[in-house]
Amino acid sequence: REPLKRSYPRVDAADDLSCRPDFSIMIYPWCLTGPVGDCSQDTNGTVNVPVSAHNPPGFLAQAEDDPVHVENSIEYFLELKKRKAPPGELHVYPRGGHGYGRCTVGESKGMDEEVCTWPDRAARFVRTLVGPA
């Protein structure tokens, strides 16, 4: 898929800047695979979101015991590689379920220290792309 074409005439210098994000961070993403327009949890090996060499570098994190199939993230990541999108990272943690967010809830939701490393890993990933804050 080619980059989007301008849909309006240039107004000022801001129109010369790209609106493409520098990176994406997807934490326990859902609805990446399956038939287009069908967000059931059944995966059929078909990525239903646009993927091309123009995608920004992506960071994906998901727990293996998430009720949303971890295959969604894996298939999306493999499609990024197949389409020669910029390098990214995929982290699949053994436990954490769905909805661990910033890991502030604690062990009551089955979280463990491993899944709670994702914010630091994501920050490191972003720093490799844009430099230190």
Describe this structure in words.
There is one protein chain. The protein is an alpha/beta fold and 133 residues long. It has a single domain (20-130), classed as 3-Layer(aba) Sandwich (Rossmann fold), CATH 3.40.50. It is 19% helix and 11% strand. The chain has two helices and three strands. The protein has helices at 71-82, 118-130, and strands at 24-27, 58-63, 89-93. It has a three-stranded parallel sheet, with helices on both faces.
Low-pLDDT segments: none
Main beta-sheet strand count, sense and barrel state? 3 strands, parallel
Strand percentage lies at: 5-15%
The N- to C-terminal Cα distance equals 32 Å
Corresponding CATH superfamily = Alpha/Beta hydrolase fold, catalytic domain
Element order: H for helix, E for strand:
EEHEH
Rg calculated over all Cα atoms:
17 Å
Supply the CATH architecture: 3-Layer(aba) Sandwich
Q: Can you identify the CATH class?
A: Alpha Beta
In brief, what are we looking at here?
The protein is of the alpha/beta class.
Write the layout of secondary structure elements.
Blueprint: E1 24-27, E2 58-63, H1 71-82, E3 89-93, H2 118-130
Parallel strand pairs: 1-2, 2-3
Features of the shown structure:
133 residues, Rossmann fold, Peptidase S9 prolyl oligopeptidase catalytic domain-containing protein, alpha/beta, AB_hydrolase_fold
